UniProtKB/TrEMBL annotation:
GO molecular function, one term: U3 snoRNA binding
Protein name in UniProt: Uncharacterized protein
Compositionally biased spans, kind Polar residues: 35-49
Taxonomic path: Eukaryota, Viridiplantae, Streptophyta, Embryophyta, Tracheophyta
Residue runs in coiled coils: none
Amino acid sequence: MAADELMATHKSHRAPKSGPTMKKKSENDKKKSGVSDNKQQNPKAFSFTSADKAKILKLHTVEKEQKRIHLPTIDRNYGDPPPFVVVVQGPPGVGKSLVIKSLVKHFTHQNVPEVRGPITIVQGSVSVLHSSLVFSYILNEL
């Protein structure tokens, strides 16, 4: 016995030659190579008869797209934005008034001798940067 007869021979792979798998693979190969099967039946029927008309239509579509991109945004905000409210809450004698006094001094560089009611601070002069803060303190009672 020879060595070739003792060795097992493996069956070679057979590529599909017909059927849906072959169609899919051939379509993928054509897409990769850039060849298209679907030729237009009558290409003259879908072309422009006038170069000027084609140019005008192209300009019109480009202008419509640019107009869509550069639409002005409408500012729907009415008046000034509402203020940010900072509420300091706690039992008596924990330093609520001290916190409010220090915050007012931080933003305005002015001393407040006594805190009575809510204190409103307006920041910025430009309407875009304009914001206001309201400091108020509340006891633990509800």
